[in-house]
C-alpha cells in the first residue's frame, strides 16, 4: 500500500505540472524512486493508477459524508475537495471524460440528499411517495454534480459561501415545497 501511495503522490505532483496525457510511467517511477517493474506490479497503466487514486478519494469522501447531516456541511466538503484537487479532477476529465467523474460524485450526493430528505420528512411528520423521493434525490444530486463539473472545467465562477448558501437554499426549498405539496401524513410510530 505504501508503494501505491507513493506512486499516486508522484502522479498527483506531475499532474500539477503538466496535462495527464503528457505524463509517462518513466516520469512517475523516476519521481517516486521505484523501477518500472514495481509500477507494473501494482498497476496495468497510468489510467489504472488514476482510477485507484479516485477509488481512494471516493472512500475518504464517503467516510466524511457519513458524519454529515446538514446540506451546508456537505456542499462545503465537496467545494473544498474540488478547490484542493482541481488539477487531479481536470486530468480525470481529460482521461476518463466527465461521465466517469460525475459518477464519482453522484453516489455520495444521492446518499446524503436522501438522508436530508428523510430528516425533513421526520421533522415535518409528512412522507413523500418513494418514487418522488428518489426523483428528488436524483434531481438535486445531478444539479449539484453539474455545478461542480462546471467549476472544475472553469466555466463556473465559484464563490464558496454564495455557492453553499444558494445550493442549500434551493435544496431546502425544494424539499419543503414537495413535502407541503405532495407529502402524506406519516403513520404513527409503533
From TrEMBL:
SUPFAM superfamilies: Homeodomain-like. Residues 1-61 form the HTH tetR-type domain. One of its GO terms (molecular function) is DNA binding. The keyword Acyltransferase does not apply. Keywords: DNA-binding. Residues 24-43 bind DNA. It comes from the Bacteria. Gene3D superfamilies: Tetracycline Repressor, domain 2. InterPro entries: Homeodomain-like_sf, HTH-type_Tx_Regulator, HTH_TetR. PANTHER family: ACREF/ENVCD OPERON REPRESSOR-RELATED, TETR-FAMILY TRANSCRIPTIONAL REGULATOR. This is TetR family transcriptional regulator. It comes from Candidatus Scatomorpha merdipullorum.
Amino acid at each position: 500500500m505504501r508503494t501505491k501511495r507513493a506512486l499516486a503522490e508522484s502522479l498527483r505532483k506531475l499532474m500539477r505540472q503538466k496535462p495527464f496525457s503528457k505524463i509517462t510511467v518513466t516520469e512517475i517511477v523516476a519521481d517516486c524512486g521505484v523501477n518500472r517493474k514495481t509500477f507494473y506490479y501494482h498497476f496495468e497503466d497510468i489510467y489504472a493508477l488514476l482510477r485507484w487514486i479516485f477509488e481512494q478519494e471516493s472512500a475518504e469522501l464517503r467516510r466524511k459524508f457519513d458524519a454529515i447531516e446538514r446540506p451546508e456541511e456537505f456542499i462545503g466538503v465537496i467545494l473544498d475537495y474540488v478547490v484542493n484537487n482541481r488539477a487531479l479532477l481536470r486530468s480525470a476529465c481529460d482521461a476518463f471524460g466527465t461521465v466517469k467523474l460525475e459518477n464519482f460524485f453522484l453516489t455520495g450526493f444521492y446518499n446524503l440528499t436522501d438522508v436530508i430528505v428523510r430528516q425533513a420528512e421526520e421533522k415535518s411528520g409528512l412522507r413523500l411517495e418513494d418514487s418522488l423521493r428518489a426523483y428528488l434525490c436524483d434531481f438535486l444530486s445531478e444539479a449539484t454534480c453539474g455545478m461542480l463539473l462546471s467549476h472544475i472545467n472553469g466555466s463556473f465562477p465559484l464563490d464558496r459561501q454564495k455557492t453553499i448558501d444558494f445550493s442549500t437554499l434551493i435544496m431546502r426549498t425544494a424539499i419543503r415545497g414537495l413535502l407541503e405539496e405532495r407529502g402524506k401524513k406519516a403513520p404513527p410510530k409503533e
